[in-house]
């Protein structure tokens, strides 16, 4: 049987997953356009890859494209992992920078108080 003679395999679970993937891709693009943050873009791209896998399976290409579908799904998972690690790194850096500013201003506010406690020299 050739690739073009594959029958459509109706699976309501895969169909719902495909619809949800499409919605997540669209929301990821919309969020990226509004915020210019990369996390929604990466998540949307990953779900786009999941959607390709679901669509191929629904169209009956599961068996002839088994290896490429495994690669596509693996790339999608790796993309989500990468996006989350990058988000974690950037949020940790932001938190460290914020704490550095807090510490800096604490030191600045403590120094004038010490200067006030120093008695003036007697004449």
| Distance between the amino and carboxyl termini | 108 Å
Q: Report helical residue fraction.
A: over 70%
Structural class: mainly alpha
Overall outline: rod-shaped
Please trace the helix and strand order, writing H or E for each element: HHH
Q: Radius of gyration over alpha carbons?
A: 27 Å
Poorly predicted regions: none
How many β-strand stretches?
0
Average pLDDT metric: 86
Number of helices: 3
Question: Could you tell me the strand content as a percent range?
Answer: under 5%
Indicate the topology.
Layout: H1 12-35, H2 38-58, H3 66-117
Helix pairs in contact: 1-2, 2-3
Verbal overview:
With 123 residues, the protein is an all-alpha fold. It has a domain at 9-87. It is built from 3 helices and no strands. The protein has helices at 12-35, 38-58, 66-117. The longest helix has 52 residues, at 66-117. The radius of gyration is 27 Å and the shape is rod-shaped. The model has no long low-confidence stretch (mean pLDDT 86).
List keywords for this structure.
mainly alpha; 3 helices; 123 residues
């Amino acid at each position: 049987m050739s690739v073009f003679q594959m029958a459509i395999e109706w699976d309501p679970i895969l169909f719902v997953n495909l619809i949800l993937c499409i919605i997540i891709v669209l929301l990821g693009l919309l969020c990226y356009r509004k915020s210019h943050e990369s996390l929604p873009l990466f998540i949307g791209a990953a779900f786009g890859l999941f959607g390709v896998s679901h669509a191929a399976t629904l169209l009956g290409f599961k068996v002839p494209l088994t290896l490429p579908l495994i690669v596509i799904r693996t790339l999608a998972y790796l993309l989500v992992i990468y996006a989350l690690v990058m988000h974690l790194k950037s949020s940790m850096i932001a938190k460290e920078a914020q704490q550095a500013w807090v510490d800096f201003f604490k030191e600045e506010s403590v120094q004038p108080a010490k200067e006030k406690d120093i008695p003036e020299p007697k004449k």
